[in-house]
Amino acid sequence: MVRRIFPLLIAMACAQAALAQQASAQQRDPAPGRRIAERDCAACHEVRPGETGPSPRPSAPPFQLVARMPSTTELSLRVFLRTSHAGMPNLQFSESEMDDLVAYLMSLSPPDK
Ligand code: HEC
Fold it and tell me: Which of 27, 78, 82, 99 has the fewest beta carbons under 10 Å from its own?
């Protein structure tokens, strides 16, 4: 009996760990990511919703708009930020800076998205 249940328990624990990881960006404190964004992105993007008016560079979408786009996900942001984008210097982020940035951007999206 115990032998049959054991693998099942392990499978459940793994599934739970995967779920917890998926939820991580939503639970992360957005403040550190906002600081990075203000340092590295504010020259072109509106970083905080409504605070600075339109993006300093009109072709760069405000982050709130980016967050609201249906195509924006944690994964799409990570991929995008690892690839160079038009008119943007190639910024290198550590894993944890990347997590912070993505958490901040995702925190701007409506909860029902
Ligand atoms: C020198 C100007 C500049 C800087 C600095 C800059 N961006 Fe951008 N960004 C742009 C422009 C212009 C676009 C629109 C063109 C494009 O999508 O390539 C854009 C688009 C984006 C998009 C939208 C992608 C999409 O799916 O449409 C994201 C996300 C983004 N930037 C994130 C960032 C982040 C995060 C930073 C700071 C770490 C940053 N950008 C810094 C100019 C900049």
Answer: 27
